[in-house]
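REQUEST ID: PR-0412
SUBMITTED BY: lab tech R.K.
PRIORITY: routine
TASK: structure prediction, single protein chain
INPUT:
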Amino acid sequence: MKIILVLHNIRSIYNVGAILRTAEGLGVFKVLLSGYTPKVNDASLLPHLREKLNKEIHKTALGTEKLLDIYSCDDIFSELDDFKKQGWQIIGLENNINDERIFSLNDPLLKTKLTDKMVLILGEEVNGIDYSLYDIIDLFVEIPMRGKKESFNVSVAAGIAIYGIMNL
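STATUS: complete
OUTPUT:
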């Protein structure tokens, strides 16, 4: 099973670093940074700003940013379309949406819906995945909540989802 992780419009540098650390530990194949997600080695920044951003990401990534295959793109729609053409299944990690394509991580049917090549999209911390991406997503996965809150921090959710999917 291969997972490409897409971090789209993640605001927090520390969430990015934490997700990278988790992704490396769980054997994620590649990581794509898109939208306004802080980028590792962002060539669009002046060298001193790029170095400062890299140091901040490193605080929580702890070196995994150098071990992972990480890249960024300017056109997420084109990139996801290319993945689809190459046979990758596009999955959105989302919760509290009314869509027939959503499956709980503990739903026995989920295993039958997944392929061995998946692109898992994580969206913005508060508002989730940008609605403009919904049409290209094949299915959504949600983490069942047992407490009173409706969601986890995106870095925690990433770890739960990746681990859960890999162990179905």
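NOTES: The chain has one domain: 2-12+24-37+74-166.
REVIEWED BY: pending
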